[in-house]
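# nightly structure sweep
# worker-07 picked up a monomer target from the shared queue
# config: single-sequence mode, recycle default, output format = structure tokens
# input follows
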Amino acid sequence: MRVNTLFFLALCCTVHVAVAQDANYWSSSYSPAGFLVPGAVVAHNGDSGVFFYNPALLGGSRKNSVTVSGTVYSYDYYKINNALGANKDLKSHNASIIPQMVSGTISLKGKRSLTFGYALLHVPVINFQASQQRDDKLNVLNDSYSPGDESFVGQANINSTVKETTGMVSVGLKASPRLSVGLSGEVQFRKHVYNKNLTMRAIYNPGGGGPAGEFANVQQSYIANYVHAGIRFKAGFAYDVGRHHLGLLITSPLLHVYGSGYIQSDFVISDLLVSGGADTLDLFANTRQEKLKARWKMPVSVAIGYTLDYAKGKLYVAAEYFRKVDTYGVITPRNEVFIRPADDTQNYTSELLRFKDVRRAVANVGVGISYNFNPDLTGLLGAYTDFRYADNDLDLKQNSGNGNAYNISYWNNFSTQIGINVKRRKFNLRTGLLLTYASTNKYPQLVDFGNPNEDNLLAGQPGLTRATHFSVGWLFSYIHNL
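# output follows
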């Protein structure tokens, strides 16, 4: 039974759910294709005196100082069809007010234009909370020892919240009439709280020789909580020739500064008859490990942008490539006792408890166009992809073993932005609509309560299902020239 016990434990510990946009690099509207957001471009877009995504564009700023504030009023809706099987969907929706950015620039007058910029950016990556239950009469247990349909209850509760705050300092230099260069340093703080709870129970029926009046019970809970701080750098270049503008941005990997977290897990199997009713499987595994090392990675990326001035505005295109990331432990537990009682070296199963991440290479593209209705009013329109980097197949190819996947997104986002910029002598007001939609028919189920039985720990045989994500936001950004 030891082999079966460890097999079942590994099976249950590697189950996870995917339900939001936390495996995408361009989820923030402040990205190389966020054409509506002030300064969120790689090549020239006409913004004057704002904090630029590409620090080289600061070199063209001639404003002594500017304050940029941005707020997004957003609503997110997620639906995972048949996430637990048997028409049991997982749904999550939330509304929020997000103070996205506060920034400023200081320009030094001289032979060559030198401009410094600073910013504080807040990104609520994901806030997903959902629960579901099936309470029904099903033929769950073998009729040889529990004839007929049993009373079955299956429950699931999933919570995942990720928040990132980034402080940035940049400098841009106008090296020549056509060429500008820049450098940025970013300090990123990330906090992630992940909580998963599963409960499956079936009451034995009398008359078959089973433990009448008792019930088979499978319960699992897994909590991962960590904070991480890291630093990365950007080197930017901008080249202007008449109405043609080019931009290049190279971003370093995120350098680890500090990371700490904890993992807590409880796994119980009791009175579950297996092997045709010949054996009863009972298992008790529990641990809480604190002060664990945590690591969050961001790969090297290269972004390019091109802007064309035309009679009434600008046409903009951008793309960014991110390298793959091999499997690593976001939180790696110590090799301490998990399975109880603690009298066997096989009970030290840290591999089953690790919180891991793996990513494929990704390339995103975006386009934008502006139109000047008059000198004081400009219309803005943009669209871009935000492809997922989560890759279960890559994880399997690398033979990375067991563990709980950090990410809960397995779809590609497609976003559009539409808005206006109102210009006055002392300020610019930019506002508009942000829309994101995603859909997939290959979404991995968490469990399948449509077919629970002893051989699958009452969790059924999870397959693929349909999932959708929709987000709408209203951006309000104010640029004040001091």
